[in-house]
Specification:
single chain; alpha+beta; 12 helices; 18 strands; elongated
């Protein structure tokens, strides 16, 4: 557990709300969609444009820039102590194909606003303050998600990630070279004293409880699987119900079993079938094969493993009963992440000092902080998003909540970095 001392600077210090909002709206023009969202997928030319703009803004604030081998960007404001570890903050600039303006970009640009505020008020910190813009957090073009932070933290293999291909058979390696962001700078996890990541909640809890700040305790563990059920396609008319090997019936029962098992592991159990494809996909043919995805999540490792085992047992029983063959392939296994208590307390103290309503919360989504939290002290700051909607062009947050989250970040960073001098 890490611990920090209270900052010497006045709690009256605030970020510039208009400046931060203007930067977010300027970034949102890159990949803007007709419905008001953003399509700025990882390692595309639009991603390059977003990176270029971010670096331009950082250099204007006197930051030094480092780019590592997977394209993670680090923008550093030096501290007074050359031996001090860095206080890092950030998120990601890439988006979903039909993403919103705030997912990821809020965290990067709120971190930039912290440095702008420190410069504006000539505030010197003992420790360096550094912004991280992680590569390919979304994982929609090149799975898996949180690729850049996962490689940085040693949780994902670099060569394996570079070999991943998109729907057009372009490798992540070639795409990274194409945008000119394969760096050679070495940034070590040992350099980090603390990492803070501001983010929209991507869920409805803060809005529902009329709370401004979510003090994030950690994130749910995740286990993902691809499931293929194989039966026998046959004519829908002549084939009696009792003689069918209907893969879709098996898929329906697996979906029900997954939801039943998740509901039995509350309050943190989650179970989702997010994708399903039928073969041959004809209205008068019994489906002979179904391909589907299974997504299971929980806060406790033992509970998550129990859910996974129960689902596996259910699949075996369902397939035996329907005369189906099956193939269950693991595609992701992320352990639950419990954030550092010292970083969590710094976020909570900042919210309290600023007079902002706050509550402890657990993230149901994956974030870069969850990989960084395995190698350095970390925590997250959530703000509400309208109706809990994210990964959607309708994603929305208010300027007031964006400003509040940036101010909590500012004071958590000040506490962790130690203020040396205020003009």
């Amino acid at each position: 557990m890490n611990s920090f001392t209270q900052p010497d600077t006045s709690i009256r210090l605030r970020t510039d709300s208009d400046r931060l909002w203007a930067s977010m709206m300027e970034m949102a023009k890159l990949g803007a969609t007709a419905k008001g969202g953003v399509n700025r997928q990882a390692l595309t030319d639009l991603d390059r444009q977003g990176r270029d703009l971010f670096i331009e803004w950082c250099r204007a604030e006197g930051c030094t820039i480092r780019v590592d081998r997977i394209g993670n960007i680090f923008a550093r404001r030096e501290g007074s102590d050359p031996d001090a570890k860095t206080v890092m903050a950030g998120s990601h600039l890439d988006s979903q194909p039909t993403g919103g303006k705030y997912d990821g970009a809020f965290g990067v640009l709120a971190s930039l606003e912290v440095i702008r505020t420190l410069n504006q008020h000539d505030i010197k910190t003992r420790a360096p303050v550094e912004i991280a813009a992680w590569t390919n957090e979304e994982g929609c073009r090149f799975p898996p998600c949180m690729m850049g932070s996962g490689v940085f933290a040693g949780q994902l293999d670099f060569e394996e990630m570079m070999a991943r291909r998109d729907g057009d058979d372009v490798s992540a390696s070639d795409a990274l070279d194409a945008i000119g962001y394969r760096g050679s700078d070495h940034v070590s996890t040992d350099e980090i004293a603390a990492y803070f990541e501001p983010h929209i909640e991507q869920g409805p809890i803060l809005e529902d409880t009329e709370t401004t700040i979510g003090v994030v305790m950690g994130g749910l563990g995740q286990q993902w699987f691809d499931l293929t059920l194989t039966g026998l396609e046959a004519h829908a008319g002549p084939t009696p119900m009792n003689l069918r090997r209907d893969a879709m019936m098996g898929a329906a029962e697996v979906t029900q079993a997954l939801n039943r098992i998740a509901n039995a592991h509350q309050p943190h159990g989650r179970g989702t079938v997010g994708y399903m494809a039928l073969h041959p996909g004809s209205r008068n043919v019994i489906p002979g094969q179904v391909k589907m995805t299974l997504d299971m999540r929980h806060w406790e490792p033992n509970e998550l493993n129990a859910m996974s085992q129960a689902v596996s047992d259910a699949i075996a029983e369902i397939c035996q009963r329907h005369g189906l063959e099956y193939e269950l392939t693991p595609t992701a296994n992320f352990a639950p992440e419990h954030f550092d208590e010292g970083c969590i307390d710094a976020v909570r103290r900042a919210a309290e000092a600023l007079g902002l309503s706050h509550r402890d919360i657990i993230s149901g989504a994956g974030h870069d902080a969850m990989f960084i939290g395995r190698v350095a002290p970390a925590a997250m700051i959530f703000i509400p998003c309208k109706d809990g909607i994210s990964h959607n062009e309708a994603e929305s947050a208010t300027p007031e909540h964006v400003h509040a989250g940036a101010n909590v970040l500012l004071h958590a960073v000040l506490e962790a970095a130690s203020v040396e001098e205020v003009s």
